[in-house]
Design goal:
Largest sheet: 5 strands, parallel
Structural class: alpha/beta
Number of domains: 1
Order of helices and strands: EEHHEHEHEHHEHEHHHEHHH
Helix content: 40-55%
CATH superfamily: P-loop containing nucleotide triphosphate hydrolases
CATH architecture: 3-Layer(aba) Sandwich
Shape: globular
CATH topology: Rossmann fold
Length: 325
């Protein structure tokens, strides 16, 4: 059955629901909406006004329904999972990739995070659900679509080994940035992962005892240290991963990523993707003139973060030398 004939075309699971001991997935109708917003939840909000989503009734399914249905719809090829430490160019990169009609770019879909952090499923069922949900999000809805790129939430780096077990042959990309610049950005507007207790500290590998010794100001630096260490551990052992430092420049990163995922684009598409990099990642009508926090001063101890950052840079340098020789 072609997708055009399937009753679930343009429907995707968007919420995990537990009620009265039962587990359900709530679905939402996309209509003709493409995933072009900076974050996936923005697309979901726009879809809620559609008639199919604005009635008093919700479309729900069982876990097994979702798994079965994911095999009935044709999905485009999953090309890469994109990991990031936040404020390191990942949103800009995704907005650039979304310019091409060949690409489906899923940027931090809440349903993926719900499943990853859920304790409602055993490991085998969780693996199946992650694959099934990603397949449904990447259903082929438009004739041009060929490539699916999924950007995860930053804290999913701590599940990277498990995600590798689910997708053993898939290219993984890791984005990072100078810790001072990341934290200066968060000082202006903190992401939820940089505020103690908005997410459980254990998500980042911070113990209950350790968190008692970390000040509010220092917490973000510790989280970033955990991200960097996770990157080092994975990059040192995995054979199908690339790591990009924001300092390299987003145009270079984009071009290298397009080569890494082995996808073919028209020259005009690449030019359009590069042009998108000149505009603000979250405000596409605003020219990007660089970050405005470079002269800000942080009252944070970055000793360990800077050390790990230099180790990441060294790891990339060693990898480049090895590939050349």
């Amino acid at each position: 059955m072609e997708n055009s004939d399937h009753p679930l075309l343009n429907w995707i699971p968007n919420k995990l629901v537990e009620t009265d001991g039962n587990i359900y997935f709530e679905w939402i109708y996309l209509g003709d909406k493409r995933y072009v917003d900076p974050f996936f939840d923005e697309t979901l909000m726009k879809c809620k006004v559609h008639y199919n989503n604005s009635t008093r009734y919700k479309v729900v399914s069982s876990v097994e329904n979702l798994i079965d249905w994911s095999t009935e719809l044709v999905s485009v090829e999953l090309k890469s999972l994109l990991f990031h430490v936040s404020r390191c160019g990942s949103t800009m990169m995704c907005q650039s990739l979304a310019v091409s009609p060949q690409n489906i770019v899923v940027s931090e879909a809440p349903i993926i995070d719900q499943i990853i952090r859920s304790d409602l499923f055993d490991l085998d069922k969780k693996r199946i659900l992650i694959k099934s949900v990603i397949a449904l999000l990447g259903q082929k809805r438009f004739v041009e679509e060929k490539n699916l790129i999924v950007k995860l939430d930053s804290w999913h780096t701590f599940q990277i080994d498990e995600l590798r077990a689910i997708f053993p042959e898939l290219p993984f990309a890791l984005l990072y940035r100078n810790p001072s610049e990341v934290l200066k950005s968060h000082a202006k507007l903190k992401g939820m992962h940089m505020v103690p207790n908005l997410l459980p500290a254990t998500v980042f590998g911070i113990s209950d005892e350790e968190i008692q010794t970390i000040s509010f100001q220092q917490y973000g630096a510790v989280v970033l240290e955990k991200y960097f260490q996770s990157y080092l551990d994975f990059y040192g052992t995995d054979k199908n991963v690339v790591m990009y430092n924001y300092e390299e420049g987003m145009k270079s990163i984009l071009e290298r990523f397009l080569s890494f995922i082995d996808a073919d684009y028209f020259v005009e598409e690449v030019d359009q993707m590069c042009e998108r990099l000149t505009r603000h990642s979250k405000k596409g009508d605003v020219t990007f003139k660089g970050d405005s926090f470079t002269d800000d001063v942080l009252v944070i101890d970055l000793t360990k973060g800077n050390s790990l950052y230099e180790k990441l840079n060294s790891s990339i340098a060693k990898s480049l030398v090895t590939n050349i020789t």
